[in-house]
């Protein structure tokens, strides 16, 4: 019994000595693992956490990212630093921060035909679309382009044909008289009934319904569990508020993800030094950077994030096409395109000091008021001429 106790004490002592050696030699053994070129992103992050020695890794990483790298080899590349900033901020992001607003949702009615759906997919370049019944506030699910392709392929491979049954004898005579024909191909797109509706084809999938206050991280976990990549954001009254996809959530961390179908949208077009044409969805900070320092929007950032939101907050309503808005001192906002739901395109003009807007000259007699004495003068001259 005493030998067993002595053995256990010796074992505990050896384990304690080993742990102390590991703690003391961790710094010396780390370079051996990272030898042979530039270390990986996560190994450098782990090394930085070890150097701090504090209990909270999040706090240590935040402080490390705020400090500037002065050495010859920076701890993180600029892209890595931006990604880590996004990761630390990700737990505060909500669905309403990443969703596509209702006005920008591209959806289809469940009563459209398969042919119409194929055209819409081709024009939009999207692979998924929400499906609704009469209104976007009555969503029924979503349709995936792979399900559409599977439906068309299945119908084209269907070997069932309608033939007139005239009896075995008549069929035998017909076979004897007519030469053998080449068999029809197994794949025939002519068999596809393109007049069927999306609901009749049975290609509508279920979609997630989430509130706008839900954390984006929780939605991503739920999407992974349900193996879906689209969710409709529903407001407190049951109406559709927006649309969130897994790609939108991932872009909050890694930045914009563009595929071969994404077109480069020109958000700000510089016409001259004082005139800019901008998409109403452009961020105010991005617009201010393009225009210059005199475009002071510090007071407006509390009420709006985009150019369209700035105009809406200034008027308290959605403007009509052609309306001129004074939303920022020293600038005029001319609404070039709008619909009853939102502003689409705006021309921003800088007003120079001392400049006066000139009115277009109208032809004589159009919208002008002639004094009575001048109006009577030509008639008197004509009367005098006729009298002569």
From TrEMBL:
Low complexity composition-biased segments: 17-30
Gene Ontology terms, MF aspect: flavin adenine dinucleotide binding
Compositionally biased residues, Polar residues: 1-11, 379-388
Listed Gene3D superfamilies: 3.30.465.10, 3.90.1280.20, CBS-domain
Comp. bias (Basic residues): 351-360
PROSITE patterns assigned: CBS
Region named Disordered: 1-39, 351-388
InterPro entries cross-referenced by the UniProt entry: CBS_dom, CBS_dom_sf, FAD-bd_PCMH-like_sf, FAD-bd_PCMH_sub2, Ion_transp-like_CBS, Transptr-assoc_dom
One Pfam family here: CorC_HlyC
Sorted UniProt keywords: CBS domain, Repeat
GO cellular component, one term: plasma membrane
SUPFAM superfamilies according to UniProt: CBS-domain pair (SSF54631), FAD-binding/transporter-associated domain-like (SSF56176)
Domain CBS positions: 99-160, 203-260
PANTHER family with a match to the protein in the record: HEMOLYSIN-RELATED, MAGNESIUM AND COBALT EFFLUX PROTEIN CORC
Entry similarity comment: Belongs to the UPF0053 family. Hemolysin C subfamily.
Protein name: CBS domain-containing protein
Organism name: Shinella kummerowiae
Lineage: Bacteria, Pseudomonadati, Pseudomonadota, Alphaproteobacteria, Hyphomicrobiales
